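Problem 3 from the worked examples.
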Amino acid sequence: MSDSPTSIPAIPEPPSPEEEVEAFISHWQSISKTGTLPRLADYLDHASPRSQPDIAIADVNPDGTVKVRLYGTRRVKIFGSEWTGRDPFDNFSPAAAKAGMQVTLTALRHPCGATAIFHFENKGAGELPAYSTILPLETDTPDALTFIHHLKFCEDLGEDDEPLRTLRFDELRFIDIGAGVPEVLPE
């Protein structure tokens, strides 16, 4: 028997929101691709348990409608409802919805990813900033453009925090996924 005290391993610090975003992008990049983009089925077969609760997958249909295919469990908890089958831009102010749709279409058609800071109206007070990242996916749905959206709040939400809708976004940057990035930001 040893007389030395048993050491307890240190509990690692949880990853920062920035590290969570980088992990999401790295995971997307690690999925096998037949062309520039991973297929939705391949993404779902290799979903990251770390980021899956924070994602939504949606289609932009040829008629311009956007419908959520899958809505992560943490998002349901944070926003208080399931958004599968709904238009995610319904949760945006009119100006943010228009700008968000322009960025989404630019990223999907190029193709590239995009990241920005979303500012949510807070039921408690003030605004709640969150890292927003979209990356395109290939599907078998004819003429639809599909994307995966990762959302991570910049700080842990408090008891009185309740994000209501996206007011605006800033710090937009496109992510080169092998096809370059657009030279001009959408107006």
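Problem 4, a separate protein:
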Amino acid sequence: GDELSHYVDYKVGRKYDDRRQEISTEYGNDAGSQTGENVGDEKVDSIVFLEKVQKLDFSETNWEVANTKGMEERIDWKGMVVQNPKVRSNLEALNANIIDQTGKKDEDFVIEVTGGDRYRDSKNLNIIRSKSDNKPIPNSAQNSQHLVENKSSAVDVKYTGIKKKEFLKAKSKTRFTGFYKDDYEDKHSHLSLPRKNILVENK
């Protein structure tokens, strides 16, 4: 995680910052210390482990990270689960493209993630839930690219501080060349990676 953050900083032209490094290291160590008792050579029941991890409270540390100058200005993930590394890297590329093409600084605009990965309810496969908060998403397409079974190859975002044409121009230089839509009632944009040999709907 630390090394990836350095790479992203390099790609978007952000200089090394001691405080951001301290926060990254401190919270990485804190997370490790809280979960360390569950790892080792012994076998651990995955369900028990998951239940214990879900009870951990990182709200205080998350707040400090979110309010550190510069970190929220690049991409506001809003706590959304977006696990596909290609989706994440292309969203970072989108942000970098906006900076390169418009000359704007990170603090001049914000890309806000409003929707991430989804999964099917194990008791009712027709019910699709958000991996971010486990709540059902009634209007989700049954074969959405947001679904884990479709490699979680889509993300929903909103943006402020830039024009639509600037956003679309920056998007055109990423791999978000799959289904795109931006006329939803809540004004979010649906971005997706290209998919081969899979018939997908997108909502």
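Solution to problem 4. The helical segments are 2-11, 18-35, 46-54, 59-66, 71-74, 85-102, 164-171. The CA atoms of residues 37 and 82 lie 27 Å apart.
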